[in-house]
Each structure stands twice: as structure tokens, then as C-alpha cells.
Design brief:
about 270 residues, alpha/beta, Rossmann fold, 6-stranded mixed β-sheet
Length: about 270
């Protein structure tokens, strides 16, 4: 039997922790699979995808390939359809696209006992912000404050809010800050906000999707017990990817999923400390 092949693609990619995460899951599940990494940029994505043979089972996609992967997929799960972004491709005659970032955000909050949300704030207006908007909407948020360096670029998030039945308000970083239940920061690692303490004062629980360097400037200004590192989101979105590769969708749990998650967490910790 041919070994099933999987990999994470992106540009840059050498920093990716996905091979360690998925390798740990594959080991616990006892599968004859291999998981690697490949540097692929947006221009080279289509040719690279066409070059895969039948041994390839799936791909994890990171920046800047999520929109290209969305276009390559013939079917999409609801989260991919809402966000226009695919971070998981299940390959075959009709490639299927999934967005596990949304579930990863929800699971990261749930792991820290944050569930129902009425008001949320999202810092940044890029692709990850779209996943964050869907996530907080599914957690119950009715009002979401989007902060962007250039608010005029957040029109797609306004439209997404209308589809989700959420009141989305777009503001600049230095506009007045109101109290929210949760804050999701989708800014690149190392970003420095004009007034991080102002966002921290009434920002609820912070999930900062960045995890290197850590703590981020924003996390450093937040009350420690209310901060969730992006490592948690990374872990849980990867677990949902494993479900996709095993079951064909991200919903049903894996056999002995607790052991799989523990092994992935250990691998991630070892990677972080190395």
C-alpha cells in the first residue's frame, strides 16, 4: 500500500510547527502517513498543486495561500464559504476545502472556559480577522468592533457581519474604546499598538493569534489570567485538520482524541522550547 502523503505549504514555511503537530497525531493514530513541509508562494501554488500524484491525501495551507486554496477547492465547508479562505485541502478527484481556523479560535476560548459572548473586538482586518468574526458570531456576539489601520479596507468584514446577523463597526486604532467580553488580535507577531493599555483595560479575555515573539506587546499589557496565546488556536485548528484528513470533515472526534491532543500539545511544547 502506498503511504499517504500530507504537507503544509506556505511562504515562508521553515518556521511552521505543523509537521510536529501532525506527526504526533499520526503516531498516536498508528497511520501509515507522512507529513512534510514545502515552500510555495502564491504564484506557484496552482502549478505545485497540479504536480501532485495520487499518493497525496491532503494539505495544510498557511499564508499567503488560503485564498488560492479556496479557489482550487471544488467544495467548501460553511466556515470556508463564509470567510473565502481555506487552510485545509482534502485532495482527490474533487478537492474539498475547509477552514479550521474558525473552530480553532472557538476551541481555544472554550479551553479557557470562555463561551457565551455579547460584544467582541477584533484587532486587524485581514484574512484571519474574517475567521475571528465568524468565530465570535458563533459564540453569540451581536456587536463586533473591528480595529484597522485603514478602516476603509474592512468593507468585506462589514458585509460578512450582515450575512452573520452581527452589527459590525469599523474604527481606527486610536478611536475611543468601549468595554467588550473578548478581544481577538490578528496582527502579525511583534506589532506594537499605539495604546495597548487602553485596549486591555476593558478588553475582556484576549486571544492573540500571534505566538512569536511571546508575550506580544499587546499580551504584555493585558491582565495575565485573561490572555490566551495563539499557540492554543494553532493546536486546536490542527486537531480539526487531523479530523478532516481522517474522517473527511472536521466535526466527528477521533478515536482516543484525548491522547491525540495530548501528544500534539507535547510536540508543540517541545517545538516552542527548542
Amino acid at each position: 500500500m502506498t503511504t499517504r502523503r500530507l504537507a503544509v505549504w506556505g511562504d515562508p514555511i521553515s518556521h511552521s510547527k505543523s509537521p510536529a503537530l501532525h506527526g504526533a497525531a499520526i503516531g498516536v493514530l498508528g497511520l501509515d502517513w507522512e507529513y512534510g513541509r514545502r515552500q510555495v508562494d502564491a504564484e506557484g501554488f496552482s502549478a505545485a498543486l497540479r504536480g501532485l500524484d495520487d499518493s497525496w491525501h491532503g494539505l495544510s495551507l498557511t499564508m499567503p495561500l488560503k485564498e488560492q486554496a479556496f479557489r482550487a477547492a471544488e467544495t467548501h465547508d460553511r466556515h470556508a464559504e463564509l470567510t473565502g479562505a481555506v487552510n485545509t485541502l482534502l485532495l482527490g478527484a474533487a478537492p474539498a476545502g475547509f477552514n479550521t481556523d474558525v473552530g480553532g479560535i472557538i476551541d481555544a476560548f472554550a479551553e479557557h472556559e470562555v463561551g457565551d459572548v455579547a460584544r467582541a473586538r477584533i484587532l486587524g482586518a485581514g484574512a484571519t480577522a474574517a475567521s475571528a468574526l465568524v468565530a465570535v458570531a458563533e459564540m453569540g456576539a451581536q456587536r463586533v468592533d473591528i480595529r484597522a489601520r485603514r478602516p476603509e479596507r474592512a468593507t468585506t468584514l462589514r458585509a460578512m457581519g450582515e450575512r452573520l446577523g452581527v452589527d459590525v463597526e469599523v474604527n481606527a486604532f486610536d478611536d475611543q474604546v468601549a468595554a467588550v467580553d473578548v478581544t481577538v488580535a490578528t496582527l502579525p507577531g511583534g506589532s506594537v499598538l499605539v495604546d495597548a493599555p487602553a485596549f486591555a483595560a476593558d478588553g475582556g479575555t484576549l486571544l492573540d493569534v500571534a505566538y512569536s515573539p511571546w508575550p506580544s506587546a499587546l499580551a504584555g499589557a493585558w491582565p495575565g489570567e485573561q490572555v490566551i496565546s495563539g499557540i492554543s488556536m494553532l493546536l486546536h485548528q490542527a486537531l480539526r485538520q487531523v479530523r478532516v484528513f481522517v474522517h473527511g470533515h472536521p466535526v466527528d472526534t477521533l478515536d482516543d482524541e484525548a491522547a491525540v491532543l495530548a501528544a500534539m500539545r507535547t510536540a508543540l511544547t517541545d517545538q516552542t522550547l527548542s
